[in-house]
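Quick entry between incubations.
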Amino acid sequence: MNITKAVIPVAGKGTRFLPATKEVSKEMIPIINKPMIHYAVMEAVESGIEEVLFVTSSGKEAIENYFDRNFELEHFLEERGKEDLLKQIQEIGSKIEVCSVRQKEQLGLGHAIAHAESFTGSEPFAVILGDDLVLAKKPVTAQLMEISSKFGKSVIGVMEVPKSDTDKYGIVDGTFLEGNKTLKMQKMVEKPKPNVAPTNLATPGRYILTNEIFDCLREIPRGVGGEYQLTDAINMLAGKDDVYAHIFEGDRFDTGSINGYLNATVEFALRDPELKEVMVNIIKEKIVRYSI
Ligand code: G1P
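Done. Structure below.
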């Protein structure tokens, strides 16, 4: 299966980042000098995706503008000979086509993805949730694409989480195939309590879906939290067709939470050759100053 399209839902209110998100969409909050959405779109680009659909809501215009050209700024940088910065602001937008659709009411992730049907047509597509950043040698979406090409089916990216955390995620159950990284899925449950969770295999929001998902999205009732859950649609799909789950390789950061955001900021700085020493020195100085 050749996958060239990705859907990135960005309609959420970002309440965990209030008051910043009163006026700035959470996807535009930066980690170092790039907004969070940049990293999600880079993952798509590096996985061979050519077109991205943002499922947006009001107040999210900055996201589309970020991937568009800004001639005034380009002119300003050109005049001052800031070629490096000019290249940086043009680069991401030149690598991918973006378009958007408005989700007028926020009725859940399943409801958001249902808005992508005319964008994807009959093609399979990737879903990337921008709140979850995964640092990996091979982008996690590309890892899932490999499995989906092999089977020609939908594939859900999963990772092991502590059993006590199952109620934060969609949890997958199934039978391991040879190699113990890929499972044939039997079911998927949204945010089960630890005592009833079938496994500790959780999705951090990476999916390759075939377009049969749209029929399921039309059929599911409201689920956890009164929302239309993508998990419920995938669970329904697994009852009709083969669906796979794959334990991806990489380090995942929940940048939708303050703790995860801090963790990602420190990690990204430490992985940046120009910032590594700066960050190490800051941390060392704080340890001494506060006698930690
Ligand atoms: C959503 C999905 C959930 C998934 C999670 C990953 O939940 O419904 O299945 O595990 O994203 O971040 P949310 O965190 O939006 O409540």
